[in-house]
C-alpha cells in the first residue's frame, strides 16, 4: 500500500470524505467550508481505497471556487456594514439606494475600495457619508485599509428621451416664481444658483423674462453676447464663475415689443436649443404672472420643483396664491417659500416695516414644507447692481447662510421628487389600446384610442364661450391609432393623431374617461 499526501486546499475539509486516486486526479466527495483562519494538517490517503465519488476536482479548480466563495463572503460583510448608514432623505440604507459601486477587495492585504455614487454632487451630507463608510468598514476584523471615492450620478432627467436635445442632460429644473413683480425674485434665483454651484453642483440660469431681463445686470460675464454654433444650429450659453447663463438680454439690443405667441416662441428657442451640457440644476427665473410664458415653460419641460418668492404685504400674498394654484394644477411641487425684505435690525431691536405673516400664511394654506426669511439688506440689493451675487461677495454672511439652508432644502427635495413614480401612458399596438399606469398603485387600465380622441377639450373640439361640443362622434374613426405619445410637463401627455392634430390629455382627465374591460394583457413576444 502506498501513502499519498493530499494537496493543500485552504478552505476544504476532507474529513470523512469519499475519494479515489486515478491518473493523477484525486476524486473527492466533500464540500467546501468557508473559514477565516485555518490550521492545516496534512491528510494521508490510501491508494487502495476504492470508494466511488460523485464530483471530480482538480486542485486549481477547487482553489478557484473556494476563492470565489471567500470573496463573496467578504463582499457581503462589507455591504452588511455599509447598510448601517441611512440616507435621511430616502429613509433607507445606502446599499438599498444603490449608492455603492465598483467594490474591490484584497483579503490577503486586508484592503477594501469602493465608490459611493450619490444622487447629486451638491449632497449636503456627502462628507458624513464618506466618514461613516470608512468607520463601519474599518471595524471589520480582517480589514486593514479602506479607500472610499465619492461621485454623483450622471445628469439626466426622468424623461430624458422625451425631451428636446438641449434638455436631455439636465437632472433637475427649478422654477423661481412670484407672480408679483418687484419682490426680489431675480435676486433669489441668481443667489440660489450660485449657492448650488458653491455646493459642488453644475448649474445654469435661464432668465425667462423677455420684456424685462434682469440677468445681464445681476452678473458680469466676460462675454455678454450669446453665440451661435453654426454647425449644430444651437446657442452657446455665456458663463460667469462656472454657471452657464442664457437670457434674452444677452441676445443683443433687439426689440422686446412682441405679442404672447411670439414671446413663447422666443422662450422655447432660447431654452431648448441652448447647449447646456450636463447640469445638475437649471434655475429658471420666471417672469411675473400666470400667462403664456409660464404655461409654455411648464409644457416644454417637466419642472422638478418651484420656489415661491413673496414679501410680507397682503397684496403680494394674493398674487403669490395665484401662482401656487397654477403650479398645483400643472403638477409642479412647490417646495419652499422665501419671504424677502421681511425685517431689519437696528438699535438692538427687530423691525417689520411691511408687517409679517405673509410667508407663513402661504406655507400654512398650501402645505408648502419650508419657509425662509430674508432681511432687508442694502448689500443684497447693491450686489445685484454691481454684477456680483451676494453669496459670492460675502460667502460667510447672514444672507449667504440663509441661501445655504435654501440650497440644502432644494437638493433634498429634488432628490425625493426624482424618486417618485410618474403616471406612465403608452400605446399597446398588440391590443390597440392606450395603457395608463397610475403611480403608487397597482392600478393599470386601458383606454380605447377613439374614446380618448373624442374626449378632447381643446378649443378645436369644444366652444370656449358656450361649452358646445364642436367635435362630433362620427368625426373620429373607431380604428384610429395614436402616432406618438410623450409627456407634457408633469401634468399631461401630448398625443399626436394621424390627422396631424396634437391633443393635450391631462392625467386627471384620463382617469375619468370610460375604460376598456376584459382586454387581455399583451401576448409575450416569441424570439
UniProtKB/TrEMBL annotation:
Cofactor: [4Fe-4S] cluster
Keyword Glycoprotein assigned: no
Membrane-crossing segments per the record: none
InterPro entries documented for this protein: FSCA_dom_sf, GBBH-like_N, GBBH-like_N_sf, MIP18-like, Mrp-like_CS, Mrp/NBP35_ATP-bd, NUBPL-like, P-loop_NTPase
Highest taxon listed in the record's lineage: Eukaryota
Pfam families: FeS_assembly_P, GBBH-like_N, ParA
Predominant subcellular localization, coarse grouping: plastid
Key words, A-Z: ATP-binding, Chloroplast, Iron, Iron-sulfur, Metal-binding, Nucleotide-binding, Plastid, Transit peptide
Compartments, record wording: Plastid, Chloroplast stroma
Residue ranges constituting the MIP18 family-like domain according to the UniProt record: 76-148
GO cellular component, one term: chloroplast stroma
Record CDD domains: Mrp_NBP35
GO terms under biological process: iron-sulfur cluster assembly
UniProt GO MF annotations: 4 iron, 4 sulfur cluster binding; ATP binding; ATP-dependent FeS chaperone activity; metal ion binding
Residue span(s) of domain Gamma-butyrobetaine hydroxylase-like N-terminal: 435-502
Family membership noted in the UniProt record: Belongs to the Mrp/NBP35 ATP-binding proteins family.
Database matches in HAMAP family: Mrp_NBP35
Protein name as annotated: Fe-S cluster assembly factor HCF101, chloroplastic
Species lineage: Eukaryota, Viridiplantae, Streptophyta, Embryophyta, Tracheophyta
Amino acid at each position: 500500500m502506498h501513502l499519498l499526501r493530499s494537496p493543500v486546499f485552504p478552505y476544504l475539509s476532507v474529513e470523512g470524505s469519499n475519494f479515489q486516486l486515478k491518473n493523477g486526479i484525486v476524486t473527492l466527495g466533500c464540500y467546501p467550508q468557508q473559514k477565516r483562519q485555518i490550521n492545516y494538517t496534512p491528510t494521508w490517503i490510501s491508494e487502495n481505497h476504492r470508494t466511488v465519488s460523485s464530483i471530480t476536482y482538480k486542485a486549481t479548480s477547487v482553489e478557484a471556487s473556494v476563492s470565489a466563495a471567500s470573496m463573496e463572503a467578504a463582499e457581503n460583510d462589507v455591504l452588511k456594514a455599509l447598510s448601517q448608514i441611512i440616507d435621511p432623505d430616502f429613509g433607507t440604507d445606502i446599499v438599498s439606494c444603490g449608492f455603492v459601486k465598483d467594490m474591490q477587495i484584497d483579503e490577503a492585504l486586508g484592503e477594501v475600495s469602493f465608490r459611493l455614487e450619490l444622487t447629486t454632487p451638491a449632497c449636503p451630507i456627502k462628507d458624513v457619508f464618506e466618514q461613516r463608510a470608512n468607520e463601519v468598514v474599518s471595524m471589520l476584523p480582517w480589514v486593514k485599509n479602506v479607500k472610499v471615492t465619492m461621485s454623483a450620478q450622471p445628469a439626466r432627467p426622468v424623461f430624458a428621451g422625451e425631451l428636446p436635445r438641449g434638455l436631455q442632460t439636465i437632472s433637475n429644473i427649478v422654477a423661481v416664481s412670484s407672480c408679483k413683480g418687484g419682490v426680489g425674485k431675480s435676486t433669489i434665483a441668481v443667489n440660489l444658483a450660485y449657492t448650488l454651484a458653491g455646493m459642488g453642483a453644475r448649474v445654469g440660469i435661464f432668465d425667462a423674462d423677455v420684456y424685462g431681463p434682469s440677468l445681464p445686470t445681476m452678473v458680469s460675464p466676460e462675454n455678454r453676447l450669446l453665440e451661435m454654433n453654426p454647425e449644430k444650429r444651437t446657442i452657446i450659453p455665456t458663463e460667469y464663475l462656472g454657471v452657464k447663463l442664457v437670457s434674452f438680454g444677452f441676445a443683443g439690443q433687439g426689440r422686446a415689443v412682441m405679442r404672447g405667441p411670439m414671446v413663447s416662441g422666443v422662450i422655447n428657442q432660447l431654452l431648448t436649443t441652448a447647449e447646456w451640457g450636463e447640469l445638475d440644476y437649471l434655475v429658471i427665473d420666471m417672469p411675473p404672472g400666470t400667462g403664456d410664458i409660464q404655461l409654455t415653460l411648464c409644457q416644454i419641460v417637466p419642472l422638478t420643483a418651484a420656489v415661491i418668492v413673496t414679501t410680507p404685504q397682503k397684496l403680494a400674498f394674493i398674487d403669490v396664491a395665484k401662482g401656487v394654484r397654477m403650479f398645483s394644477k400643472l403638477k409642479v411641487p412647490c417646495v419652499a417659500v422665501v419671504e424677502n425684505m421681511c425685517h431689519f435690525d437696528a438699535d438692538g431691536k427687530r423691525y417689520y416695516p411691511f408687517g409679517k405673516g405673509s410667508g407663513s400664511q402661504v406655507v400654512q394654506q398650501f402645505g408648502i414644507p419650508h419657509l425662509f426669511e430674508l432681511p432687508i439688506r442694502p448689500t443684497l440689493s447693491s450686489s445685484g447692481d454691481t454684477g456680483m451675487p451676494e453669496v459670492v461677495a460675502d460667502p460667510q454672511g447672514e444672507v449667504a447662510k440663509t441661501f445655504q439652508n435654501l440650497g440644502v432644502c432644494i437638493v433634498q427635495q429634488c432628490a425625493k421628487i426624482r424618486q417618485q413614480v410618474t403616471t406612465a401612458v403608452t400605446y399597446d399596438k398588440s391590443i390597440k389600446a392606450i395603457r395608463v399606469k397610475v403611480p403608487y398603485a397597482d392600478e393599470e387600465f386601458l383606454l380605447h384610442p377613439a374614446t380618448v380622441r373624442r374626449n378632447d377639450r381643446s378649443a378645436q373640439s369644444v366652444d370656449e364661450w358656450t361649452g358646445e361640443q364642436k367635435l362630433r362622434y362620427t368625426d373620429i374613426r373607431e380604428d384610429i391609432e395614436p402616432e406618438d405619445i410623450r409627456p407634457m410637463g408633469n401634468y399631461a401627455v401630448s398625443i399626436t393623431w394621424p390627422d396631424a392634430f396634437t391633443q393635450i390629455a391631462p392625467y386627471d382627465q384620463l382617469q375619468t374617461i370610460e375604460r376598456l374591460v376584459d382586454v387581455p394583457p399583451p401576448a409575450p413576444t416569441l424570439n
